[in-house]
């Protein structure tokens, strides 16, 4: 057994990896609240403005499928460093973009390079003891989720105070600093096996077919992340509408409050370490349903309605944060030699759910209104919860079987 597995990961290293993943993944989301000013500045037509977000997500999905699996083949520290240097360069290109094609190229590249965060998470699991792996992953994922939740309001506030170019320029500097800090602090980790890249990629489909836990956990989180993407696509539109009349700064503050849900990540990790993954998953999925049920209450007071919506955002974010950790904890027990590939497939699948949720939510809100969008989000989580029931029934059936 090598030295990194004999001793547990230090609290300082956990904090560094949590901060790093948060800063890296934030790069994916800065543009979401800045689509308007970016489109106006680069000459992108309103019909094509959605490409700003879509190309970033496409780049990320491509990276999850074709780059993250390299964590099982190449030295991990060097892979992370290279990915972050590339991401920083793409953020610089975004910051200096004066035309649509320049920014869209940068958006694709930002998504592609930001998958370095998903090489770091399995790295954290590798550095942890089995008994504390869930807590470690939970803390690192908390940082990742805080990066997602903070990125949008931070981008809005910075752009209001200066302009959108400053947002991407500042992000480029932060990612560059993270790259060099991680190169200095991370241990060398060389995977044990050596296979060709084509065989590595071919193994992804085999892993998907042969790993029921991966398929189930991806399905659960595709439902939750689909509803999460739907919520954060339509809720800013609702908040800026005639019922609430919130400014961009007000919407940014709303998003900041919602990030309180990230506290569920380490709690979920502890529950998983104690063997309570099955019931903790049910609780996470139920929180997702509740998060969409609460805003269906329509009180007469604007302030009460806004307060309920704030609570709903926290509840939903708690469900998403908890379930993400439970899923990663489950797939990381399947073997260190395939951890990066499993993580890449897992994220790619549930990000696909997020893309569907965002697109469907926007369409439902535009054509059928707020309540129809809420019911759609509830359906995503409800379907995942129904699928969980099949796992629960299978588990109880196995317990009732007589020992042979």
Automatic annotation (TrEMBL):
Pfam families: MFS_1
Record's keyword terms, sorted: Membrane, Transmembrane, Transmembrane helix
TM region(s), chain numbering: 12-32, 44-67, 79-96, 102-125, 137-158, 164-182, 218-239, 251-271, 278-298, 304-326, 346-366, 372-390
GO MF annotation, one: transmembrane transporter activity
Disulfide bond keyword on record: no
InterPro entries: MFS, MFS_dom, MFS_trans_sf
Protein name: MFS transporter
């Amino acid at each position: 057994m090598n030295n990194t597995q004999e001793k547990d990961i230090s609290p300082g290293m956990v904090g560094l990896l949590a901060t790093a993943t948060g800063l890296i993944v934030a790069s994916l989301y800065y543009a979401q609240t800045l689509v308007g000013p970016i489109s106006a500045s680069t000459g992108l037509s309103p019909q094509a403005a959605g490409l700003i977000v879509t190309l970033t997500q496409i780049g990320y999905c491509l990276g999850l499928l074709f780059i993250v699996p390299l964590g099982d083949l190449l030295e991990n520290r060097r892979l992370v460093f290279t990915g972050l240097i590339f991401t920083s360069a793409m953020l610089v290109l975004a910051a200096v973009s004066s035309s649509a094609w320049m920014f869209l190229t940068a958006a694709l590249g930002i998504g592609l390079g930001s998958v370095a965060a998903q090489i770091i998470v399995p790295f954290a699991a590798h550095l942890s003891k089995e008994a504390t792996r869930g807590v470690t992953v939970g803390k690192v994922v908390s940082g990742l989720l805080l990066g997602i939740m903070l990125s949008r309001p931070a981008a809005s506030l910075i752009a209001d105070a200066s302009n959108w170019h400053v947002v991407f320029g500042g992000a480029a500097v932060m990612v560059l600093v993270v790259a060099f800090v991680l190169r200095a602090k991370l241990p060398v980790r060389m995977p044990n096996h050596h296979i060709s890249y084509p065989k590595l990629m071919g193994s992804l489909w085999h892993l998907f077919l042969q790993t029921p836990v991966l398929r189930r956990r991806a399905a659960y989180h595709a439902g939750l992340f689909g509803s999460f993407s739907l919520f954060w696509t339509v809720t800013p539109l609702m908040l800026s509408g005639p019922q609430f009349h919130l400014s961009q700064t007000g919407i940014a503050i709303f998003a900041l409050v919602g990030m309180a849900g990230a506290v569920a990540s380490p709690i979920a990790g502890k529950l998983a370490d104690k063997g309570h993954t099955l019931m903790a998953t049910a609780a996470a999925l139920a929180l997702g349903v509740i998060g969409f049920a609460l805003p269906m209450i329509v009180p007469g007071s604007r302030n009460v309605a806004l307060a309920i919506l704030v609570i709903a955002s926290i509840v939903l974010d708690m469900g998403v944060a908890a379930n993400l950790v439970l899923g990663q904890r489950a797939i990381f027990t399947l073997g260190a030699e395939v951890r990066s590939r499993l993580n890449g497939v897992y994220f790619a699948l549930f990000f696909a759910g997020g893309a569907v949720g965002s697109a469907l939510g926007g369409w439902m809100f535009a054509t059928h209104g707020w309540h129809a969008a809420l019911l759609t989000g509830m359906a995503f989580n409800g379907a995942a919860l129904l699928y969980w029931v099949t796992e629960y029934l299978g588990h109880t059936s196995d317990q009732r079987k007589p020992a042979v």
